[in-house]
Amino acid sequence: MAFSSLSTSGLPLLPHFQKPKLSFFTSNLQTPFEPFPQLSTLNPRHHQKMSTMKAQASVTDLGIVERAIQLVQSSPPTWKSALLSNIIIFTVGSPLLVSGLSLSGIGAAFLLGTLTWRAFGSSGFLLVATYFVIGTAVTKVKMAQKEAQGVAEKRKGRRGPGSVIGSSAAGCVCAFLSINGVGGEAFTRLWELAFVASFCTKLSDTVSSEIGKAYGRTTYLVTTFKIVPRGTEGAVSAEGTLAGLLASVLLAFVGYLKGQINGPGAAICVIAAQIANFGESLIGASLQEKEGFRWLNNDVVNVINISLGSILAVLMQKIILQS
Question: How far is CA 315 from the centre of its chain?
Fold first, then answer.
């Protein structure tokens, strides 16, 4: 409030009111309110601390990834690298695994994969993975037709732990022998050769059987050459035999490309696989499902088959080396 004076004679000057100016209020109303200052403005140290924590977290995450990559690439492989590699691969490939294996079968395959990686690294694992993919694919060829004829694999071709063990028992033995260095360096390559031969044998057997059941025109019993229905134990067909031979060549070639075996070793694996499969057909035709041999089921015959393929490969390689 401002005051002005009244000029009255004999009296002191008295104040009186002056109209207030509205410019103060109008100027303040026209000025927008300032927003609240950000936290970083109020406390710059807090902002700096948060940035530092984020940077440290990023560095930590990157360090974990780098350590994981280094662990997977460990040479020679370790149990830790084998376990981590299989966890990653089985997680990524779970849709394919579920289509070809039961839940317990996946568990058995995980153990097989871990053991294989520990013994032979990524090369051995790739060989087994190739076997699984091709074997699963041919099992599902003309599945409806096979089911109608009663010769299809159970559970739509999804194999259980018995089938996994029966298909990999010889390979697991070779892996254990290699890990423990049985026979020293002189036998290291032999165990790897036997490992490749076992899966070449099993893949050849699976492909010949499944393709024979799907496309075989004439099926013969190997012991008598009598024409029998598709799917008969111990029966062979030209279509199935040729397909099995090509499958063993393909898998042996994968082993050759990955450096597990050399050229002569690949040829040995293919030859051993064909001889072992012929022996398996003889066992199936003469003994399997016969009186006194009820224990001789498919899984047991598979173990005999792949073991024979591995042993033959080692013997042939030793003979070649000696000569």
Answer: 32
Burial label for 204, CB within 10 Å (0-12, 13-18, 19+), is: buried
What length does the chain have?
Answer: 323
> Omega before 76 cis (within 30°)?
yes
Nearest to 230 by CA among 206, 212, 203: 212
Structure tokens at 35: 């927003």
Extract long-range pairs of 254-257: CB within 8 Å, 24+ residues apart: 254/126, 254/127, 254/130, 255/123, 255/127, 255/196, 255/200
Judge whether residue 19 has pLDDT over 80.
no
Q: Which amino acid is at 167?
A: S
**pTM summary value:** 0.77
Which is it for the CA torsion 42, 44, 48, 53, positive or negative? negative
How confident is the model at residue 54, as a pLDDT? Answer: 57
Q: What single string gives the DSSP state of each residue in 203-240?
A: HHHHHHHHHHHHH-SSEEETTT--B--TT-TTEEEHHH
User: CA torsion sign, 319 to 320 to 322 to 323?
Assistant: positive
